[in-house]
Design brief:
This protein is of the alpha+beta class. Helices cover 37% and strands 9% of the residues. Bound molecules: protoporphyrin IX containing FE. Protoporphyrin IX containing FE (HEM) binds next to helix 2, helix 3 and helix 4.
């Protein structure tokens, strides 16, 4: 998975577009590569072009796109996330700490546990007052990839600890198979 870039504002998005020669739009706090999509947009190729490098939140809503149009963002390449709000694109602090804002397919996270999704979740959860089992189960069953802006959820703020969380699947057989085979051999 390619690491998402943190953009402070739309100027930084424009600079990155110059470097890569690609076309991006900003949608609900995330930056998407629309270079290949512009030409196949059902609403017309001229519609997205004026918003390249800018937020399409308003025009997208005004065109009353369907739910499946929203879902299309999952297939677009997500380049990064806007972390700053100085360009007035999106009040990121407000959005990332407000899980009630609709996710990409319109999903609202309804769990009573409200965390700040721009920060590590582990300590927030651990230090949460009045946490009970039912709320916790509801919380862990919610689709966190639909948090708005859709972002990489992290467990720890510390990058070293966080690195330990992201285990590729093949580490599991590499770590577990040799001791299992050895124990089997000893017991045989
Ligand atoms: C990457 C961003 C965009 C995606 C993925 C997208 C996707 C789509 C899709 C799938 C449709 C077909 C109808 C539907 O399912 O709602 C559509 C129609 C449309 N889009 Fe977009 N759109 C994007 C950006 C925009 C923007 C920025 C505008 C306006 C400035 C716009 C204006 C329209 C219009 C006017 C239609 C209606 C066409 C018709 O009904 O004849 N779209 N779009």
């Amino acid at each position: 998975m390619v690491a998402l870039k943190d953009f402070k504002n739309d100027q930084e998005v424009a600079e990155h577009m110059k470097q890569t020669g690609r076309k991006y739009v900003i949608f609900e706090g995330s930056v998407y590569d629309v270079t290949d999509y512009i030409g196949v947009h059902p609403g017309g190729t001229d519609k997205i072009e004026p918003y390249v490098g800018k937020s399409i939140d308003e025009p997208f809503d005004e065109a009353e796109h369907s739910r499946s149009a929203r879902n299309l963002f999952r297939d677009l390449d997500k380049v990064g996330i806007i972390y700053g709000n100085d360009a007035g694109i999106v009040d990121n602090a407000k959005i990332s700490s407000n899980p009630n804002i609709k996710g990409l397919d319109g999903t609202i996270l309804e769990s009573k546990i409200k965390l700040d999704y721009s920060k590590g979740l582990f300590w927030q959860l651990l230090t949460l007052e009045g946490l009970n089992w039912d709320d916790y189960i509801q919380f862990i069953n919610e689709p966190k990839h639909l948090v708005n802006p859709v972002r990489e959820i992290r467990l720890f703020d510390n990058p070293i600890l966080e690195y330990g969380v992201c285990t590729p699947w093949y580490y599991i057989p590499i770590a577990y198979l040799p001791p299992i085979i050895y124990c089997y051999y000893l017991g045989a």
